[in-house]
Design goal:
single chain; 138 residues; mainly alpha; two-stranded antiparallel sheet; 3% strand
Length: 138
């Protein structure tokens, strides 16, 4: 499930970032439909992982929370986009509307989905395998 943590989120922020660039009702309608499905998948995966937050992932000896935080920090670093990805839990000061520390729905302070430009997504994907191997795996 941790591997699945990566995929829907990348598509979700990509669709959100692409939306302003799209012209035409039918295309925007399609994008909105895809966005809903991606957000749902991301929420289901994050909920599953939150339920197992303190379990240790063998053989890495990281908890699920630590693992997802490392992945999120890595994606932010690779994309060079500031904080547009967060782990399963966040400090209250950056939680949605300063009211929550859980992060089942990854969103900014105003409870809006993060967006990434195509360049930010491609930078993240281009170096993903090499960086995951160097930063996370033993």
């Amino acid at each position: 499930m941790i591997a699945l943590y990566v995929i829907p989120y990348v598509r979700l922020v990509g669709y959100t970032g692409t939306n302003p660039l799209i012209e035409g009702y039918e295309t925007k309608k399609l994008l909105a439909g895809l966005l809903g499905v991606e957000a749902g998948q991301d929420a289901v995966i994050r909920t599953y992982l939150c339920e197992r937050a303190e379990e240790v992932v063998q053989p890495y000896n990281y908890t699920v929370t630590e693992f997802t935080l490392c992945i999120s920090k890595l994606r932010n670093w690779l994309a060079k986009c500031g904080i547009k990805d967060e782990g399963l839990f966040v400090p209250p000061e950056i939680g949605a509307e300063n009211r929550t520390t859980s992060n089942v729905l990854s969103a900014d302070y105003n409870s809006l989905s993060y967006s990434q430009t195509q360049a930010e997504i491609l930078r993240g994907l281009q170096y993903q395998r090499r960086a995951y191997t160097r930063w996370i795996l033993p």
